[in-house]
Design a protein that fits this description.
By secondary structure, the chain is mainly alpha-helical. The protein is built from 6 helices and no strands.
Length: 137
C-alpha cells in the first residue's frame, strides 16, 4: 500500500513539473539568459517549501510511512565537495538541458531522446559508486 502512495506522489509531482514547464529546455535556457523570472520563482518557492517542510518534520518528529526514524543529519561541509559536485552537475545540466528530476518527467511525456541522458546519468552514478572511496568528501 505504501508503495502506491509513493507512486501517486511521484506521478503528481511529474505532472506539476511538466505543467509548470520546469522540465522545459526553453524555460531553463531562458533562466540562464536572465530572460524571465519564471524558473527562479519556481525554484525559490520549492526551496521555501522544502525549508518549511523540514521544519515541520523536525518540530513534530514526523516519521516516514514505514515508521522508521527520519534521518535529517547535516552533511560535512567542504568547499571541494560542493565546488566539484556543483561543476559536474552544472556541466551535465548545460550539456543535456535538463537536471535529474525533469529527465524522468520528459521520458514519461514521450521524449524518447532523453533516455540517452538518463543512461548517461545512471552511468555517471555507477562510476561515482566505484570511485567514491577515492574521492574527497
Amino acid at each position: 500500500m505504501k508503495n502506491i502512495v509513493y507512486i501517486i506522489i511521484g506521478i503528481l509531482f511529474g505532472i506539476i513539473m511538466y505543467k509548470s514547464e520546469a522540465a522545459s529546455w526553453f524555460r531553463i535556457y531562458e533562466m540562464f539568459q536572465f530572460g524571465s523570472f519564471h524558473m527562479y520563482g519556481l525554484m525559490g518557492s520549492a526551496v521555501l517549501l522544502g525549508i518549511l517542510g523540514v521544519q515541520v518534520i523536525k518540530k513534530n518528529n514526523l516519521k516516514p510511512l514505514d515508521d522508521s526514524d527520519m534521518s535529517l543529519e547535516p552533511k560535512d561541509k567542504s568547499v571541494t565537495r560542493y565546488l566539484v559536485g556543483g561543476i559536474i552537475f552544472g556541466l551535465g545540466w548545460a550539456l543535456a538541458g535538463v537536471c535529474p528530476g525533469p529527465m524522468y518527467v520528459l521520458a514519461g511525456a514521450g521524449y524518447v531522446s532523453v533516455l540517452i541522458v538518463i543512461l548517461g546519468a545512471l552511468l555517471g552514478t555507477l562510476i561515482y559508486g566505484v570511485l567514491r572511496k577515492k574521492l574527497p568528501h
